[in-house]
Write a structure and sequence with these properties.
By secondary structure, the chain is α+β, with helices and mostly antiparallel strands. It contains 20 helices and 22 strands. A hairpin with a 5-residue loop joins β1 and β2. The chain is elongated. It binds adenosine-5'-diphosphate and magnesium ion.
């Protein structure tokens, strides 16, 4: 039989390699930004069109390439960064595999323009699907410009796999943030579809964080510094009270490289033990410097995971360094010598006139329950009034008040007469009981009814929000003083997108400018103190939008707000509150499931109960 093994042609091998290196436009962004940094650039421009599907271009002022290098850079395993395997353990460059450009050129239309400082003219090479289309002499400034157009043009399956523009853009911005945070001394600008989305001048680390995440971030940061023989730590953690519901702002850099490490992340969360409200995550921006010989970066193709020789020691040092910083912040004012005078004055300083350091001396981690339950507290103080406010807007359902509660029916119920124990209603005896501050137990004619209070209330609020969103005439409560909230530029963009819909729920925006949002009215059912939490939750829901499902802004908004506002598990409810909730649930169009499609109530018939008493 004839031999059957053949060597794959280069362009096929490159396409296969590309599958590993380039998953989406954001992968191209990462590789090109890293090449620019390795080339010693001090200023880097990132230009994106259509979430990178049409164009990803990186322009740097680095050292450029010679004519021969320009051509060679697209060959597989062509790299100027390592010469032998030993070099792998002395790495101080981002790249070393020599695969990125070859892979990218195999699956896109690529144009490279590059010039070295001392050369009169530069080189322009056009490559499409690994085929060199042209190579010319060009006039171009010192440095390199690499444009990647029509990614995956020759692999339609991969192109179809790309997510919505919103999702792909978020991945690109994530990569951009990571690279920009690791290199505050390099200036970065990013344009998307012709408008400038980030402009990050060269600065110190604190300023870089603030320039990315918004001026308000400045007052949230607690410096962490530690210098030991095996590990040097510098950077910041976020104060516990600013912890977010999402894990968005968590960054480890090891030797200037962004990495993910669940183990080190655990070191931080254990340092925060007892200081965080349930379900929130501390922010951190930490640079770890270790001897390059003690790490192995080669274990992951996209290089966001690395192996440490002595993880346990790193864990312990990291944890104690963070604990130490938090301790300092709790008991003594932090004098931040690091603060740059050019930095904007945080807004709280403006209001107080003279600069002061905010220290919460009464801070007690064990009081967590009390402080984090501000919502439930307010219910307890004035249960009826506040409870009712949750029902404003439900007037149309007003006919179904307690008196004809008995007529509410289950679809499954054949019996046409009252299913609730009418006796209870008439005599105003208690018809519901709260169980474990979680379930409401009630009786129906055929047996027992068990309602999950959190899910049930979500359903009620969700249908209510949907209605206001479609009818577009929700009621607002005017605020006496406009509420000023600060967001990062990225978050502002999302708020702008949702502005119309938010207005239909009852929000009134006075200004959305820079990083500031001023709100003069809020939906009637939204307590002022909850507004920032609601918006934060909403932004994170939009950012994490599941791209494959049918995306409707209205639906997402209603879901997110009902999730934020619904009474929580663990919250004590008065009998009146319980009854209102049961009423409103069964006045809903789809009482059986929560907006997230989870069961809201179960029933247990007398028969079923009888069987248990054998
Ligand atoms: P690697 O970065 O792993 O070496 P790449 O395929 O990304 O592999 O790049 C191949 C080579 O091309 C690099 O080693 C470098 O010499 C050169 N190169 C790539 N991008 C640039 C750039 N922006 N400026 C100067 N040289 C570059
Ligand atoms: Mg590279």
């Amino acid at each position: 039989m004839a031999d059957i093994i053949q060597l794959l042609p280069d362009h096929v091998a490159n396409q296969i390699a590309a599958g590993e290196v380039v998953q989406r436009p954001a992968s191209v962004v990462k590789e090109l930004l890293e090449n620019a940094i390795d080339a010693g650039a001090t200023h880097i421009k990132l230009i994106i069109k259509d979430a990178g599907k049409t164009l990803v271009q990186v322009i740097d002022n680095g050292k450029g390439m010679s004519v021969t290098d320009a051509r060679l850079s697209f060959e597989r395993h062509a790299t100027s960064k390592i010469r032998s395997a030993d070099d792998l353990f002395q790495l101080n460059t981002k790249g070393f595999r020599g695969e990125a450009l070859a892979s990218i050129a195999a699956i896109a239309h690529v144009e490279l323009k590059t010039k070295q400082e001392d050369d009169e003219v530069g080189t322009c090479i056009v490559i499409e699907g690994s085929t060199v289309e042209s190579q010319e002499v060009v006039v171009t400034p010192k440095g390199t410009s690499l444009s990647v157009k029509n990614l995956f043009f020759n692999i339609p399956a991969r192109r179809n796999f790309l997510k919505s523009n919103a999702v792909e853009t978020r991945h690109i911005i994530d990569e951009f943030h990571r690279v920009a945070l690791a290199h505050p001394s390099i200036g970065f600008v990013m344009y998307h579809n012709g408008s400038e989305t980030f402009n990050l001048p060269e600065s110190n680390y604190r300023q870089r964080i603030v320039n990315i995440f918004g001026a308000k971030t400045n007052e949230k940061l607690v410096p962490v510094n530690e210098d030991t023989e095996v590990l040097k730590i510098s950077g910041f953690v976020g104060k516990p009270e600013f912890a977010k519901k999402t894990r968005g702002e968590q960054f480890f850099f090891v030797n200037d490289r962004f990495i993910k490490s669940a183990y080190l992340n655990h070191a931080i969360s254990s340092a925060f033990d007892g200081l965080l409200k349930g379900g929130t995550h501390a922010s951190y921006f930490l640079n770890l410097t270790v001897n390059p010989q003690t790490i192995d970066i080669n274990i992951h193709p996209t290089k966001t995971e690395i192996k440490f020789d002595d993880e346990h020691t790193l864990y312990a040092i990291l944890r104690s360094a963070v604990k130490h910083s938090l301790g300092q912040f709790n008991i003594a004012p932090i004098l931040d010598f690091d603060r740059d005078a050019n930095l904007d004055t945080p807004y709280s300083y403006e209001q107080k006139g003279a600069p002061s350091v905010e220290v919460d001396r009464s801070f007690n981690p064990f009081q967590e329950e009390k402080t984090s339950r501000s919502v439930s507290n307010s219910y307890k103080k004035e249960p009826v009034a506040n409870w009712e406010s949750l029902y404003v807007g439900l007037e149309s359902k007003g006919t179904q008040t307690q008196s004809d509660f008995s007529e509410v029916q289950f679809e499954s119920e054949e019996n046409n007469t009252s299913i609730f124990e009418s006796v209870n209603q008439v005599e105003h005896k208690q018809s519901t009981y709260q169980f474990h501050n979680k379930y409401i137990v009630s009786t129906i004619k055929s047996g027992l009814l068990l309602i999950d209070q959190h899910r049930a209330h979500q359903r009620v609020l969700y249908e209510d929000f949907l209605k206001s969103l479609t009818v577009k005439e929700a009621m607002s409560q005017q605020l006496l003083f406009p509420l000023q909230l600060h967001f990062s530029p990225q978050e502002i963009e999302i708020i702008n997108q949702l502005k119309n819909d938010l207005e239909h729920t009852g929000f009134i925006f006075k200004t959305i400018r820079g990083e500031l949002v001023e709100i003069t009215g809020v939906p009637v059912m939204v307590p002022e103190s909850e507004v920032s939490i609601i918006l934060e939750q909403l932004i994170s829901d939009v950012e994490n939008e599941v791209p494959d499902t049918h995306f409707s802004a209205t639906d997402l908004l209603a879901k997110s707000m009902s999730k934020s506002l619904a009474i929580k598990t663990g919250q004590n409810l008065t009998t009146v509150e319980q009854e209102y909730l049961v009423n409103s649930l069964f006045a809903c169009k789809e009482p059986n499931v929560s907006p997230a499609n989870r069961t809201t109530f179960i029933t247990m018939t007398v028969d079923e109960l009888d069987k248990k008493f054998v």
